[in-house]
Each structure stands twice: as structure tokens, then as C-alpha cells.
Amino acid sequence: MLRLRVLTDPDRDWPLWREVRLAALTDAPHAFKARLADWDRGGEERWRARLGTPGAYNVVALLDDRAVGVAGGLPGDGGGRTWELRSVWVGPEARGRGVADRLLAAVERQARRAGATQLKLAVVPGNDAAVELYRRHGFVATGERGDILPDGGAREQVMAKTLR
After folding, report:
1. Distances from the Cα of 142 to the Cαs of 17, 27, 33, 150, 159, in angstroms?
2. CB 62 within 8 A of CB 68
3. Strands 2-7 and 118-123
4. For residue 120, which phi and psi values (nearest 5 degrees)?
5. Considering the entire predicted model, what is its pTM?
6. Tens digits of residue pLDDT in 146-157
7. What pLDDT is stored for residue 47 in this prediction?
8. 3-class DSSP state for residue 164?
9. Is 138 buried (19+), middle (13-18) or exposed (0-12) by CB count in 10 A?
10. Rg (CA), the chain
11. Could you tell me which of 40, 7, 14, 42 has the C-alpha nearest to residue 25?
């Protein structure tokens, strides 16, 4: 059975956040700007701090009580009118089951509740499956130049969705 768990308490939830984030970076290093080496040695305080980011919304997908997916959202620029979608990942054993759809919907609902009118994300070039997922959910390329990736040359592709 699939259920979503919102991580609300950094003191209690950091081990689950760490588990799923390291699984994502191990399974799909090509899909993230962050690298496993950036987080693998992260101490408990670093994991707690990430979960304690003001206004952050982090949700984990659990399949039979195993963490199989994650997504996060947080207020971006524009005084909270724009939210950022971050750290989306679904494990191989859960792909094709609508897990990503549920994670994205949860972050979007929270962004709307917070008064956001736009949801933005950045995706690594070549991550065609993610781009297709985001398009299916109404995101479009903005033409903005995203952050430079660790290789020093490529940039993330920025996509956005208007929230009505």
C-alpha cells in the first residue's frame, strides 16, 4: 500500500529524509545537481537543518513502509508567490505506479495553500523522463538559464507552472 508522509519534525524525521535522499543520489546521480559525496558525509545537524528550512514542505512516499520516493517544495523569490519544486525522485521498484504524480500533487497543494501563484523547478539536461513528467503536470520551459552544473558547462533547464 502506498502512502505519503509529510516530514514535519526535523528531530524525528531526519533519518528517513537522509535514507531517501541518499537512495535518490545513489540511484540517479545524473538527475541531480547535488552529488552523493556532497551529502554522504553530512552529519545529523546538516540533515536536520535541511528539513528545518523555513516554509519547507518535504514529503516521502512509502510503499509497504519502505521509502520509495521523495519530493520537496519551498518558498522561492517573490515573497512566497513562487514556490520551488525540489528533490523529486521515485525508486525503481515504485516507478510506473503513479508515485511521482502523487508527490507532485502534494507539493502543489501545499504551494497553493501557502498562497503561491507559480511553481518552478530546475531539471538536469538529458533527464527526459523527468521533463515528460513535468510537462504532463502542466510545467513549461521558461527559457531562463538555470544553475551551472558541477561539470562547469551545462545548465539546468527551468520549468514553471502557473497555479490558479
Report:
1. 30, 28, 19, 22, 5
2. yes
3. unpaired
4. -120, 160
5. 0.92
6. 888 777 778 889
7. 87
8. coil
9. middle
10. 15
11. 40
Cell numbers placing 89: 525522485
Contacts of 161-164 spanning 24+ positions with Cβ under 8 A? 161/108, 161/118, 161/119, 161/120, 161/134, 161/137, 162/117, 162/118, 162/138, 163/108, 163/111, 163/112, 163/116, 163/117, 163/118, 163/119
List, for residues 88-136, the tens digit of each pLDDT value.
999 999 999 999 999 999 999 999 999 999 999 999 888 999 999 999 9
Residue indicated by cell numbers 502557473 = 162
What's the CA gap between 122 and 49, in Å, rounded?
22
Whether the Cβ atoms of residue 85 and residue 119 lie closer than 8 Å to each other = yes
Question: How many whole angstroms separate alpha carbon 97 and alpha carbon 3?
Answer: 12
Whether 89 contacts 67, CB under 8 Å: no
Give yes or no for a contact between 83 and 76, defined as CB atoms under 8 angstroms apart.
yes
Write the DSSP assignment of 49-83 as a string of letters: HHHTSTT-EEEEEEETTEEEEEEEEEE-TTTTTEE
